[in-house]
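Forum: Protein Structure Q&A
Topic: Joint prediction for protein chains with partners

I've read a bunch of threads here and the consensus seems to be that you should model interacting components together rather than docking separate models afterwards. I'd like to see that in practice. Below is the full input, 840 residues plus whatever partners are listed. Could one of the regulars post the assembled result?
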Amino acid sequence: MLTILNKIKSYIYMIFSIGIITTFFGISFAFAEFKCPKTGGIFKTVDLAYPSMDAGVRANPVYYSFLIYDSLLDMTEDLGVAPGLASEVPNKSSDGSYTFNLRKGVKFHDGTEFNAKAVAFNVDRLKSGKIASPYSGMWKKFLKNYEIVDSHTIKFNTNGEWPTFLWDVAASLRVASPTAVKDAGRDYGTKVAVGTGPFVMKSFKAKDHLHLDRNPNYYRKGLPCLGGFKAKLISSGSVRILKLKKGELDTINTFPESQFPQFKGSKLILQEGKASTFTLIPMNTKNPILKKKKIRQAIQYAINGKELIDNVYRGAGEEVDSIFPPWHPAFIKAEDLSKIRQDISKAKQLLKEEGYGPGGKKLKLKMLHGTGGAHVQRAVLIQAQLKTVGIDLSIVKTKMGALLKQMYTGKYELALWQMLGGPTISEFTWNMYHSGGSSNPSNYNKKGGYQNAEAEKLLNEIVKTNDPAVAKPSLIKLQKIIFDDVPVAFANWRNHRTVRNPWVKNFKTGKLKGMEDLRKVWLDK
Amino acid sequence: MFLKVLLRRLITFIPTILGIATFAFLLGHATPGDPAYAALGIDLEGYSGVDLEEVERVRKELGLDKPILVQYVNWIWNALQGDFGRSYVNDYVVMDAVIEALPNTLYLLGCTMIVAIIVGVSIGMISAIYQGSVGDLIARMISIIGVSTPVFWFALILILVFAYTLDWFPIGGVVEEFGLKALVLPVASIALHPAALIARMTRSSMLEILSHDMIRTATSKGLFRKRIFFVHALRNAINPVVTVIGFQTGNLVGGAVAIEVIFTIRGMGELLITAIHDKDILVMQCAILLIGVSFALINLLVDMVYLLIDPRIKL
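Posted by a regular:
Agreed with the consensus. Here's the joint model:
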């Protein structure tokens, strides 16, 4: 009997010990997700379109902000969200609120404590418009209020549907030190920038340089691998490449495809983020001519996206097969792609039906396009493609700001546009085609624009979920409608590019342009 | 006489500067794009949405909703007090950025002009003195190449050969970072064109003077060749050369823009280019005004130098 009891006891001890060991290793693995093979070294790059290092400012490339600041949630490689300064990803409660439990013991670079009040302070800054941030409008519109539950818990109450809330928190709510913001006043962002992020700002000058040192107290122990970060604005493309080849730079991100041949035969490694940028031509459906579906369809039939990829992007792009990019979880290849592929005879037929073409009226349209080399080349090629079906397209080179202004105020006919693909379903659907969408310059479903009640209904259903599996039936229907209505002409998807020296390790080109995570990058020099 | 002329020219300077200021202000406003968009950071390629209410709020905050005349008067009044405002886009004090950038440009242009004058006058004189020789032929070839070579192309070739392949100099950078080595390639790139023009002008002017009777008289009187060339000939030949130097100093500002961009020198040219790209109108206006005023000042200086080297000239 005693032996049996002892045996049971020893089993209990064994199970208990295994439990303790498993828990210990489990916790250890959770905290030591990544061990840097090598630490130190300064990562040197170019591209500095940042006007300020303020947490609320949006600039290009986006990842620079996440060197100094952390958000409550991290953006993951597969375009999801993961715990950041919040210890877990919250679930949406039945009343539409989200409660974030914040990590304890996290300090800002200035030694002050990170807590719920700090989060609230940053939300208030965004909502108040005290900083010129493109995110202000979104936070003002969709966030009803917040409640500080305790020092490390904060609850957000949204105004109705905000389907992209968690992603928007990860992408736009970067947390700055309230003490530093108050102390620096107007100079915050340009002379001082204090977050909890992997690097500490050493010096910054807008459109000139950014120098960062490693944050030794980063809350993710062992990270970052790099000892520092230096970015210097170098405007000349040729000089950038020479510096990279000479080893004075580790990576460059922005360069035209025409420079591809310069990397051939060198030790440099070219990395591409497939189909990250959408090339499209919004057509203003408030315009009496473009309100006619057949005219829009004719324009779509005239466009050859493959020709643009081969001639302008040197093959670095993909044709449109869906309203989503090929890497997107909601990508569904359309069964009938003939409506968005070039078909000259169909285009001519549709124009004839509307009274244009031989023996009829001459269709004259104007398209705005950007000023960069690729913008001009694309515009010229599209002009030639439209000419083959008898459309006389005049192209107008316009600065990006002016182009956006004309598009969003409805003072345009066609615009050649390039937009970064968003990670959420609603960014590609609701925002692009719904009457209330923020990126819907074609005025599709808007007052005075081309109306499709069924599309609007489907969009209202889709916006309620970001789960591709749930939205799939509606998405298939919507895609069919959009490819038929063509409020925007679909040109192609363009890849984004990074070229690096071989000693830069674990540098992953994100699915979205400018979203690289430098925390786990290390230098093998 | 000198002071009287200087005073008269200074008085005419006032309307010139006012004209430049008006031009700078209007040019800033005439460029396409909306500063409110730029201030919000949505003037960037690939932005997917615009909140028009937010744009309007920022426009109001920046005072861009006021009538253009009001904006002009405010700008002139503030500029008179040395206040060019705070950059809409980059949020720095405009004057601070200019004060930081100006010395780099002055340093670059100053060194360039010294090199261009020394090289240009020397080549021009050698060419004139040894007219028809192999040296003259080579000097003329160099000056033709110098006049016809685009600055940006020459700069890239210099970088490729001397900075990338031979590794003698850095690929861009400023003196504080690399020392005087940083100046060699930018100065060489930008000095080529003015040096070539100065050489051509010196040669033709010297040849004309060398054919004068006074030179023959001086030679027949047995004066040293050095004295004839440097004192008698060069002094008389220098007036058109000074004119070319004056014009070239003004033109250099244009060349400096390209060179500063290529060599990553944070000077006035680079500042202006970035401001134009960003639709940062306050920086643009300030930079245009300063460059215009510098040009006018250089012209004034050249006129005064005329008076000093040849008092017979009436201005």
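Chain A touches chain B through 55 residues (CB under 8 Å).
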